[in-house]
Design a protein that fits this description.
mainly alpha
C-alpha cells in the first residue's frame, strides 16, 4: 500500500492507469454504441461492465476504471453521475485509505470538470449525487496510523510523566 507522493520512483500516476483502463474497457464492453438509440441504455451497459470489472481490482485500478468508464458515458451524464460516480463512492467508501492524495485530488478535479462540461446542458447535475461523490479534505489528507506511531506517542507521555514525577519528588525533598 502506498501513501506518499505519486511522483516518487515506481509509482505510476493515476492518469496513466486511467489511460490503460480506457484501452482495456472497449475489449470488455461488447459493441453496442449505435446499436441502440438509447444513451441511457448504452451508459448502463458500460456501467454494468465496469461494476463487474472493479470487484477484484485494487483501489487505484478501480478508481481509474470508473473514470475510464465514465468518460464513455458522455451522452447520458445523469445516469453516469447517479449509477457510476456516486455508486462508486457509496460502494467503496474506504478506497481513500489506499489511494494517494494525488489520486483523490485527480478524482475531485475530474468531478469539477465533469460538472463544467455538462452543467449547461444538464443543470440537474448540480444535485447531491455529484456533490456527494467528492473526497472530503479529511479523506484527501488521510494519513494511516501505524502501530509504531501510537506506541511512540504513548512512550513520550510515559517518559514525560516519569520526568514530571521526578521533578516533583526532587522539589519535595529540598524543602
Amino acid at each position: 500500500m502506498y501513501y506518499g507522493n505519486a511522483n516518487k520512483i515506481g509509482v505510476v500516476p493515476i492518469a496513466a492507469i486511467i489511460t490503460t483502463a480506457a484501452k482495456v474497457l472497449p475489449g470488455l464492453i461488447p459493441f453496442f454504441r449505435g446499436a441502440f438509440e438509447s444513451p441511457a441504455g448504452d451508459a448502463r451497459k458500460v456501467i454494468n461492465t465496469v461494476k463487474q470489472q472493479i470487484t477484484s481490482q485494487d483501489a487505484r485500478t478501480r478508481l481509474a476504471t470508473v473514470i475510464a468508464g465514465s468518460q464513455q458515458n458522455s451522452r447520458a451524464a445523469d445516469v453516469d453521475v447517479n449509477e457510476m460516480l456516486f455508486w462508486y463512492r457509496q460502494n467503496y467508501p474506504n478506497d481513500y485509505i489506499e489511494l494517494t492524495p494525488e489520486d483523490k485530488l485527480f478524482w475531485n478535479s475530474y468531478l469539477d470538470n465533469y460538472r463544467q462540461r455538462f452543467l449547461l446542458q444538464r443543470p440537474d447535475l448540480q444535485n447531491n449525487f455529484l456533490n456527494r461523490s467528492y473526497f472530503t479534505k479529511e479523506q484527501i489528507n488521510y494519513k494511516p496510523q501505524t502501530p509504531g506511531t501510537q506506541t511512540a506517542g504513548m512512550n513520550m507521555w510515559v517518559t514525560l510523566g516519569i520526568v514530571g514525577a521526578g521533578i516533583f519528588l526532587i522539589t519535595k525533598m529540598k524543602k
